[in-house]
Amino acid sequence: MPFAQILIAALAGMPLVLAIDGSAVGMGCTALVIGIVYKKRLFPLAWIVREGKKGHFPEEIHLELLDRVHSILPAEAQIILVGDGEFDGVDYQKTVNQWGWQYVSRTASTIMLSTEDHEFSFEDMACNLQAGETLVAPQVSFSREEYGPVTAIAWWGNGYKEPIFLVTNMESVEDACSVYKKRFKIETFFSDQKSRGFYLHKSHLSDPARLGRLMIAACLAYYWIICLGVEAVRQGWHTIFHRKHRCDLSLFQIGLNALEYLIEKGRAIPVAFNLG
């Protein structure tokens, strides 16, 4: 991604939360994307596009994408990586741990865990779990490959129909659960790229390389639209096309509305950043 290093440098000095996930793009292709979660948005850093309907990528592609991002991150940066149930592979966990990153990944209820004298599944952990409760198994080995030690978490959040299961190398269970919630920002990003923004899923392109290049343009536009939303709020002219006393639009949506308004009125469109 152009100027990814500039974005990283701008956020230096604070822990960086990275989220990774995949989504369908174009015709018959899927993009695996990783980005930085900052406030309520995800800012993309890198991606890989391949042919195939939405589904799990092979673990080697996970590692390829992670390696690309690892190569541009400062060695001293504090990184926390979050992902859903696709990102619980043993090689994935090993690699991230060797880099000194922290991670939280969702995993399946059927995954086996073990201690020196006991073997059990996440499902076994949660057999008596009630809504609002969290159960923790520290210092366990993960899966039949017995990778570890890791911390296993069965977490049934208030308002949810069932528990979810997490694997992490973080010491604080509370922090692990809290940071995992930020994973959903990448789903908001995909919505902005697709049905709520640029309709990337409606592209008739089917070649992964061409879609990858299209995503460069779409992601640069995403950055710019958010900058335009920030400028609209800062200058106060977002109230012209948005209710004054309650904001229920994201900065991205404000930016899109601002662009439409400026074009309609024939006004100058501010460009708040450049690639220099």
Which short descriptors sum up this protein?
single chain; about 25% strand; about 280 residues
Report on this structure.
The protein has 276 residues and is an alpha+beta fold. It has eight helices and ten strands. It has helices at residues 4-10, 59-70, 90-98, 122-125, 173-180, 185-193, 208-235, 251-265; strands at residues 16-25, 29-38, 41-51, 79-83, 102-107, 112-114, 119-121, 134-142, 147-155, 164-168. Helix 3 links the parallel strand 4 (79-83) and strand 5. The longest helix is centred in the last third of the chain and has 28 residues, at 208-235. The protein starts with a helix and ends in an 11-residue tail after the last helix. The mean pLDDT is 91.
What sequence of helices (H) and strands (E) makes up the elements? HEEEHEHEEEHEEEHHHH
Strand content: 25-35%
Strands of the widest sheet, in order across it, are 3-2-1-4-5-10-9-8-6-7
Residue share in helices? 25-40%
- How many helical stretches? 8
Query: What is the alpha-carbon Rg in Å?
Result: 21 Å
Show unreliable segments.
none
Q: pLDDT average, as an integer?
A: 91
Main β sheet profile: 10 strands, mixed
Gist of the model:
By secondary structure, the protein is an alpha+beta fold. The chain has 8 helices and 10 strands. The two termini are 14 Å apart.
Topology:
Blueprint: H1 4-10, E1 16-25, E2 29-38, E3 41-51, H2 59-70, E4 79-83, H3 90-98, E5 102-107, E6 112-114, E7 119-121, H4 122-125, E8 134-142, E9 147-155, E10 164-168, H5 173-180, H6 185-193, H7 208-235, H8 251-265
Parallel strand pairs: 1-4, 4-5
Antiparallel strand pairs: 1-2, 2-3, 5-10, 6-7, 6-8, 8-9, 9-10
Pfam family, one: DDE_Tnp_1
Keywords: Membrane, Transmembrane, Transmembrane helix
Protein name: Transposase IS4-like domain-containing protein
